[in-house]
Amino acid sequence: MYQARHTLSQPQLLSTLLLISDTDPDSGGQANALLKNLEEFNFVFDLLLLKRVLAQCDILSKTLQSSSVTYEIVKSVRNSTLEVLKSFRTDEFFSKLFNHSTEIADKCGFRAAQLPRQGKIPSRIGGGSKAPFESVEQYYKISIVWPVIDILSEEIEARLQENNLDVLNNLSKVLGGTDEDTASVKYVCKYYNLDNEHLLSELRCFYKMEESRNTTIQERADIFVQKSLKNVFPMLFKLFRLFFTIPMNSASCERSFSCLRRLKTYTRNKIGQERLSSLALLAIERSIEVNISKVIDDFNLSQKRRLNFV
């Protein structure tokens, strides 16, 4: 049986499971059960669906893990991810996914898609002889694809709600707006203890500047640096610094803890706090290029290394 199935160019995983089920008396039953599940159309369909959907969500996940990410970037990637997931919830996307899964299943000799056995709805509560799903495609679309996309979209919206980020949301409206949003200005002034009228005066003047029109928050921050507007708009400059320095995640902190676990091992149990902090700083900031020759020269000139015995 193994030789006959192996000649059909089955993937190595399926061939290995088939060999185990035919030759191993202890694990043969489990291997055979797993093999039957893998040779179903459901396995191919679910795998392709998760590959498409999770690959799209992976972009947002990597964005949130970045140590230099800002609120504006997170908001943009979040909205674009939700838009893409929304585009997946269409008949066109489902048809392509279902047809592709059917082609792969037929090529590998897997069992075709079929409706699961389901009890009929009693006629006394509005049912009858009509089945819950009229076709196989309708079952996979309503029971699998739509729920997966809806759950992911709801989780992204719930975890990254703008209402839970009031400070950053109001800062974004103040720094990226084109007119006076008095509610956001009042919120920011109250939160950071700023003068409301002074900030409004700076905003009115800044919004009228030619360079600030039709620009993003990042571009406006670049204008502040290029035009040296720090002393012209001190409150706005402070808000820009706050906006770009508020961390959007704890990824960098988690990496720091992981770094300490690698540095403070059992073989280094006598390492001191100062040395540990210095090694951790070198490991955490390893992306910064260091001129080793300059460091050696500075260390050599820092103090006299030779002892005078005369």
Automatic annotation (TrEMBL):
It holds the Pfam family Dimer_Tnp_hAT. It comes from Macrosiphum euphorbiae (potato aphid). InterPro entries: HATC_C_dom, IFN-induced_PKR_regulator, RNaseH-like_sf. Residues 230-286 form the HAT C-terminal dimerisation domain. This is HAT C-terminal dimerisation domain-containing protein. One of its GO terms (molecular function) is protein dimerization activity. It comes from the Eukaryota.
